[in-house]
Design a protein that fits this description.
227 residues, 5 strands, WSC domain-containing protein 2, Sulfotransferase_dom, Sialate-O-sulfotransferase, sulfotransferase activity
Length: 227
C-alpha cells in the first residue's frame, strides 16, 4: 500500500482483549496490512508485515494501540471490548508466558499481587470506555465475544466502518481460517481466581460503565458481571 493511502484509524483496546487476533482477521478479510504503535518484532516475524511501519504512514488499514494518547488525533476508532474478567486472565498469560498463545502458571493467579492487578486492570478497562464514549471521531465498538459467536456479521460491520468494499471470497476464507497463529486457545483454571471481594469491585466497575454508556446513548453493553 503506497504511503499516505489509508486514513489513520486506530484499533484500540485494553491489553488482553484480543487485539492481535482481530488484527489478523482484519488483514485476512481486507488484504491490507495492519500497523501498531509498538515495535514487537515477534509479531513482524510471525506475519504482521505492517508491524514496524510508522504508525501514521498511511500504509495500514488500522493501527493497534492500548493508549489514549495515540487515539486523540485519529480519524476513526475501532474499539475492542472484552469481558474484563477474561481480559485480566489473558493479559497475565501474555506477560508471564512465552508469547501470545501460551499460558502462565496457575500460581500467577493467586495472592495479593494478582488481586491488585485484577482490580487495577478492570479499573483501566472502565476508564478507557469512559474516555471512548466522549471522543468525537467516527467510531465503532466491537465485542470480543461477538467475534467468537458471530464472526461473519462482525467482519462485515468492520469492513463497512473502514470504508472498504467487502470481498466475499476473502470473507469466506477468513471464516474458514479464523484462528491464526496468535489466538490463545481457551484454558480453564482449576479454581476461580476471582475471590468475592475482588468480584464485588469488578462488578461495580462494570455497572458504572454500563450507566455511562447509557448516558451517552451507546448500545447496551453485554452482561459481564459474575456472581
Amino acid at each position: 500500500m503506497p504511503e499516505g493511502t489509508m486514513p489513520y484509524i486506530v484499533l484500540w483496546s485494553l491489553p488482553g482483549s484480543g487485539n492481535t487476533w482481530l488484527r489478523y482477521l482484519i488483514e485476512r478479510v481486507t488484504g491490507i496490512f495492519t500497523g501498531s504503535v509498538g515495535n514487537d518484532k515477534g509479531l513482524f516475524d510471525g506475519g504482521f508485515r505492517g508491524q514496524l511501519l510508522p504508525a501514521k504512514s498511511g500504509r495500514t488499514v488500522v493501527v493497534k494501540t492500548h493508549s489514549l494518547i495515540d487515539v486523540r488525533d485519529a480519524e476513526g476508532i475501532l474499539f475492542l471490548i472484552r469481558d474484563p474478567y477474561g481480559s485480566a486472565i489473558a493479559e497475565v498469560n501474555r506477560r508471564f508466558s512465552k508469547g501470545h498463545t501460551s499460558f502462565a502458571t496457575e500460581e500467577r493467579f493467586m495472592g495479593p499481587q494478582w488481586r491488585t492487578f485484577a482490580i487495577d486492570h478492570v479499573e483501566q478497562w472502565a476508564l478507557d470506555i469512559k474516555h471512548y464514549v466522549v471522543l468525537p471521531q467516527k467510531k465503532l465498538i466491537v465485542y470480543y465475544e461477538d467475534l467468537q459467536n458471530d464472526l461473519r456479521n462482525q467482519l462485515k460491520r468492520i469492513v463497512k466502518f473502514l470504508g472498504l468494499s467487502l470481498d466475499e471470497q476473502r470473507l469466506q476464507c477468513t471464516l474458514q481460517h479464523r484462528e491464526g497463529n496468535f489466538h490463545r486457545p481457551k484454558r480453564m483454571l482449576s479454581f476461580d481466581p476471582f475471590e468475592k471481594p475482588v468480584r464485588l469491585v469488578i462488578n461495580k466497575s462494570i455497572r458504572d460503565v454500563r450507566q455511562v454508556m447509557l448516558k451517552y446513548h451507546m448500545p447496551v453493553m453485554r452482561s459481564y458481571e459474575r456472581l
